[in-house]
Give the backbone structure.
Amino acid sequence: MAECVDDLLEHGNGWAERIRERLTHLPPELTALVLHLGQAGTFWDWHYKVDAAWKRQTKALLKADGAWELVAEAIRALSAGGSLHDCTDPNVTWQELWAKSDRTPTRGLACGFALAAGYLALGASPTELEDLVADLLTVARKNAFVLDGYYKRDDDLSGAVFTALADLSAMEALWTLHREVQPGAHSHRHLAKMVKKTATRLGVPPHQLQERTVPTHGVGPDGTLQLGWIGRGAVWLNIPYEAVITVSDTGRVTVDWIDVDEGGATTRTSSPFRSPTGFKTKYLPHNVDATRLLARKIEETLSAERRRLNALLYENRVWPHAEWARYYRDHPLTGIFARSLIWEYESEEGIWTAGLPHLAGCLTLDGRTLDVAGTARIRLWHPKQATPAQVEAVRTFLTERDVHQPYDQIKDAT
């Protein structure tokens, strides 16, 4: 049976070489598990549907002694090297980057191990599960075109990891991937489905699901997104010219078109993001349209977030500061608006202090920088809950600092 297992491991594949010795010297019951997991390639494809009979048999085989450790080791080996398509020969690896991802026995086995990892919750300690989820998260990030560096996207394996994380109810890991994996990846739709399914099962309120799934579109903390050819800008979208999409502190989106064939001549445009004369002829329409479409999607998300934050003014929502900072203040798109609104921070004594968000915590109306504990509560300031003097203090504060708000926060002051 060892020879059969060896047939599943491609020679030269980085992951296969790292685990070959481990998988070809197993007792019969674990060898049967490996051979069974290798059959995942017969059904696991872009539909992302697990065969019910395969799943039942997998759970039965995982009861064997050492099965948990074997699957965990295989996932750890997947996370340790490059992507699934990393090869021991660098020249072959470079060629593999451009080659189509064929359905190979090794690819099917990797997907089988990833799916099986989702059934390991029973009998595992919290530490073991935490380590397993961390390894799965790394595997997903490498194979979903998230990390900079030499990694090839593999939607089949990424989709298998998304399914496993959902089976493990690893909500935080799924939130992270939802922010990082761009909609251009085929597996993103499956990821979104797994996020919603897991959130529903865990009882996550609709408003939390909404605020945790706001896309970043690849925009960085500085409000910019760089695009270019391989090795330049975002790794998940490559174009034969260079472009920089910028979101200003008022929410205005612009595109800098950089003509690499003309010494880097730059032209800036705003919505509808028309390209410079001759760009489509030189760099082809579909490449130019990819940049324009992305800029428009960023605008759409910003418009939706402006409306959502406006609606929050009429809701009685309170967040722990650390949670709020992650999904509001520090989000590259939501933060554009959240950082220009007045919020209230609760002290240990239960006193609420109004101010603007600040990296150190809060800039109060009297100009002090207030350090805010991660467990402190925060809410959106509303003029109807403030005295006339407080409303006037907010108005003066915003005027003196020339703060451009996404909407007039004090318009309902009485």
In short: The chain has a mean pLDDT of 90. The chain has three domains: 2-212, 224-302, 313-400. The longest helix spans residues 285-312.
